[in-house]
Design a protein that fits this description.
This protein is an alpha/beta fold. The protein has 29 helices and 36 strands.
Length: 892
């Protein structure tokens, strides 16, 4: 059961091919001819069996045929018949190579495959390749060379183009998969397989769209946690949305949302397929950078300056040698060398000078990566310099990239760098961009590790009050909240707002303004007006009662004339904010299809669309994610001491973002929201104006189903008494538990480790450890039992430490109705009731997810586990595939 469910598809031992009458090519379709030619052009490591649905014979004859995978290249009606035959001969996977199959026919194929329990790639797929198996089950061209990259593409034409480009550039693949519209096995499932595929070291994806954001993000996060993932996406949609009712809806486009989703998933986005492979090659190296400081070593000022310009352009930092390193290096370089910003070795530089400079940069803690830019010079051995760089590369712990400019005279040098596995580029901009991808990967991996709960650790919001307010507005068949209602909703989540009172007449406005104190701001209050300033519906710094009366009357008349159909409730009065050096910012929320709520942050005010400053992130947030969101905006530079103004209270701003994240998680009815402006200074943050658009929540919005990333399920935390005294906590696992989980495995007895992992491993490999602790809580769950122990230090001081003493886990099966479990308990905690409690807790969580059955494999010689299963009411049966195991199952 530990074998991936797509193994029969991508790692078949026997393949049944349905391609028409192979002995009569005239009766085959063009795709069938191309497929048969591709399958037989090289030696496949498994067994190929060619079947014809019209002449196969009796069912008794079919019963003698066994295959893992059926490959079908037939007209659609015959393809459905072939799927039925494949099901009868117990194929566990099928590939339908075709194009132009309509939705209804594709749906019928899906039903047939489901009925027989087959995983179906297709229809409308161009097939796949597994070069190490010698398997070319595709019509995308000749079999690619073997290599560590996996390619997944949603375009058959682009798959062929990429393979052709890769052949000319010596790029090899572990797997190539061409997906198409209406395929049953989708992008998320293929990513899930590649994440666990030992042949694949990094993954490149070309995609045009997704249907299920939660499933895509779940698979992408798991894959990016295991190995580098680089994505090229087509279809950059224009951001403007004329139907939007808020600034957020108008300026946040789907492409920026997709970028934010990739960033949060730990993947890297590129813009061209040439960049796709250069990024994958860099990321698949053994380097793991820790920042974005790039040192540039060059033998010519011009190319070095071009590289340095691009460093600034894409948001990296030009790294400089420390004074000590620079002084040591200067003595080893030619007299004309310069170390002020670039490491310019001058035109006299030879291989030894390059070696010394790379060594100095490699050992300088102020530098995260190194780019060597070489221009051809008369009498300089470019290939010799490349060989010297290749020799020192093995001793570096930082990314090393090269740019060998020119063409005719540097061909040998580029070949030397290629053989040394050093990424080499023809232009400085391309090389700097490749390092930018490496830096982005590191930064995005930090975001990937964050698993915040839906509610922060701040004071609990008034959820019932907020939901009641929304229900009342929806009951009135309205979707746009008034300013008063919007601010009330913000207040329910403890977001500071200006004190605002609605006036329905000029006299009432004067009395309210006098009580609040001057100066005041007046704003039209109407559910039908999105942007008040567009209809002269805002007046600031009104200084006295006469001014309030005149402004009120003038505003009502102007708005009624400009927008005669608008419902006007009156005019709101609020005291002008006194923080004169505060920064006007904007926090917004939009609902994207398919990613759900997205939070935007940037510069605010009336020119928000013109300034176009926005950084975006997917909720839920924690303080780390809120801080990173602020740092990605352009306005971030003005938040510290700036032009005489003191630095703002960043903690207060982060708290507001956390509160907005809470709103996004807990209120699935939210569609759009503007807090603009929110004024922040050294004393805090206050929302001056707010506008919120709501709608009825979909029926599936319970349990945070409206979010693309499931929050940390803190609701499953429980404290239980321990048999024999003491207590322990059961809670969901999170990435910070990695070290404690490793210690649990290291301290298990050899027998316990074998019972759990069916292996003699003494500790978890880093990739597996990461995989077990960073989970998405959607298709899988792991609960850990935490015991607090008091330990005495060397000096006699006592301290309390936490220890994982047990783990229960389940992973949802492909049928999405059942799950497979595992359980391990520390040896010194056996017999204290942990095992049964962990199992009951994980079963309760699986039941809460709507699963019907939980099952697992237990070694037949593990009496303790079998006794526990029997005591919990599990059904115990022999496992037909292996007599050493028992299959245990329990209906939920």
């Amino acid at each position: 059961m530990d074998q991936h469910y797509l193994t029969p598809l991508f790692q078949p031992e026997t393949i049944a091919v349905f391609a028409g009458k192979s002995q009569d090519p005239a009766q085959q379709t063009s795709q069938a001819k191309a497929l048969v030619e591709a399958l037989t052009a090289q030696r496949y490591q498994g067994v190929l069996v060619f079947l014809d649905i019209h002449t196969t014979g009796t069912l008794a004859d079919l019963a003698q045929t066994r295959a893992d995978l059926a490959i079908i290249a037939l007209p659609s009606a015959e393809a459905i018949e072939a799927l039925e035959v494949a099901g009868r001969i117990k194929c566990r996977a099928a590939l339908v190579v075709s194009s132009g199959i309509p939705v209804d026919v594709a749906a019928e194929m899906h039903r047939v495959a489901r009925r027989h329990g087959m995983q179906l790639l297709g229809p409308n797929s161009m097939g796949f390749q597994r070069p190490r198996l010698g398997l070319n089950a595709s019509v995308t061209g000749p079999l690619a060379a073997p290599g560590p990259l996996a390619l997944v593409s949603q375009s058959g034409a682009l798959t062929s183009s990429i393979l052709d480009w890769a052949k000319q550039n010596s790029v090899g693949f572990s797997t190539v998969v061409s997906l198409g519209p209406n395929t049953a096995v989708d992008l998320a499932q293929v990513l899930d397989f590649l994440a666990s595929d030992a042949q694949t070291h990094s993954i490149v994806v070309y995609m045009e769209g997704i249907s299920n954001a939660r499933r895509f993000m779940s698979a992408l996060r798991a894959a990016a946690n295991a190995k580098p993932v680089v994505v090229l996406k087509a279809g950059r949609k224009q951001a403007g949305n004329e139907a939007a009712q808020t600034h957020s809806g108008a300026i946040v486009g789907s492409d920026e949302v997709f970028e934010a989703a990739l960033r949060r998933a730990g993947a890297v986005r590129v813009r061209s397929f040439v960049e796709l492979f250069s990024a994958a090659k860099c990321l698949a190296s053994r380097y793991r950078p820790v920042g974005k400081r790039l040192a540039i070593i060059t033998n010519g000022g011009g190319p070095g300056v071009l590289a340095a310009d691009w460093v600034s352009e894409i948001g990296l930092q030009l790294a400089k040698l420390s004074a000590t390193r620079a002084a040591e290096l200067r003595a080893q370089l030619p007299p004309l060398a310069s170390l002020s910003d670039l490491i310019d070795l001058s035109e006299e530089a030879n291989a030894e000078h390059y070696r010394c400079a790379i060594d100095a940069a490699g050992h300088d803690p102020q530098i995260d990566g190194i780019l060597v830019v070489h221009s051809p010079k008369a009498g300089v051995d470019a290939a010799g310099i490349a060989r010297a760089i290749g020799d020192i590369n093995g001793h570096l712990s930082k990314p090393l990239l090269c740019c060998w400019m020119g063409d005719a005279s540097v061909g040998e040098a580029r070949e030397v760098l290629f053989q040394a596995n050093i990424p080499s580029f023809r232009t400085p901009e391309a090389a700097v961009g490749a390092f930018g991808n490496i830096a982005s990967f590191y930064q995005n991996q930090q975001l990937l590790q964050q698993t915040p709960p839906p509610l922060s650790t701040l004071a609990k919001p008034d959820l019932e009050g907020a939901r009641l307010l929304i229900e009342n507005v929806l009951a009135e068949r309205r979707k746009v909240l008034t300013e008063m209602e919007s601010k009330a909703l913000l207040s329910a989540f403890h977001i500071p707002v200006t004190h605002t009172i609605l006036a329905r007449s000029a006299n009432e406005a004067m009395m309210i303004a006098t009580q609040l104190g001057y100066p005041v701001a007046l704003k039209i209050d109407s559910p039908d007006i999105s942007h008040k300033s567009d209809v002269n519906g805002v007046a600031l710094n009104v200084m006295n009662a006469v001014g309030v009366r005149d402004v009120y009357n003038t505003m009502i008349q102007a708005v009624s004339k400009l927008q005669p159909d608008a419902r006007i409730n009156g005019v709101t009065i609020q005291k002008m904010a006194s923080n004169k050096r505060g920064r006007e910012l904007y926090i917004g929320l939009v609902t994207d299809d398919p990613f759900g709520p997205v939070i935007a942050f940037g510069a605010g005010g009336t020119m928000i669309e013109l300034i176009n400053d926005r950084a975006m992130g997917l909720p839920p947030f924690n303080q780390f994610l809120a801080r990173r969101l602020i740092e990605r905006s352009r306005v971030n530079e003005t938040l510290d001491n700036w032009r005489g103004a003191t630095a703002v209270d960043r903690d207060a701003l982060e708290h507001v973002l956390l509160r907005v994240s809470e709103m996004a998680c807990e209120l699935p009815q939210l569609r759009e929201m503007d807090i603009n402006p929110i004024i922040v200074d050294e004393s805090g943050a206050v929302a001056v104006d707010a506008r919120i658009v709501i709608d009825n929540a979909p029926a599936s919005a319970h349990n945070y189903a409206h979010l693309a990333i499931l929050p940390y399920p803190a609701r499953y935390e429980q404290i239980w008494p321990m048999r024999g005294g003491g207590e322990y906590t059961i809670r969901p696992i999170h990435p910070d538990d990695a070290q404690m989980l490793q210690e649990l495995v290291q301290n298990l007895s050899a027998e316990s480790r074998y019972f759990r992992f069916v292996s003699s491993l003494k500790e978890l490999p880093p990739a597996l450890l990461s995989r077990l602790t960073l989970i998405d809580y959607d298709r899988e769950m792991a609960l850990v039992a935490i015991h607090r122990e008091t330990k005495t230090g060397e000096q006699g001081e006592t301290r309390e430490v936490e220890r994982i003493v047990g783990v229960s886990r389940y992973i949802t099966n492909p049928d999405l109705a059942s799950c497979e479990f595992s359980l391990v308990v520390a040896d010194d905690f056996n017999g204290k009731g942990l095992g049964s409690r962990l199992m009951m807790s994980i079963m309760e969580e699986a039941r809460d997810k709507g699963l019907d059955e939980i099952e697992g494999l237990v070694l037949a010689n593990n009496p303790g586990m079998l006794k526990l299963m029997k005591g919990l009411g599990f059904v115990i049966k022999p496992y037909p595939d292996d007599p050493d195991f028992k299959l245990v199952s329990h209906a939920l």
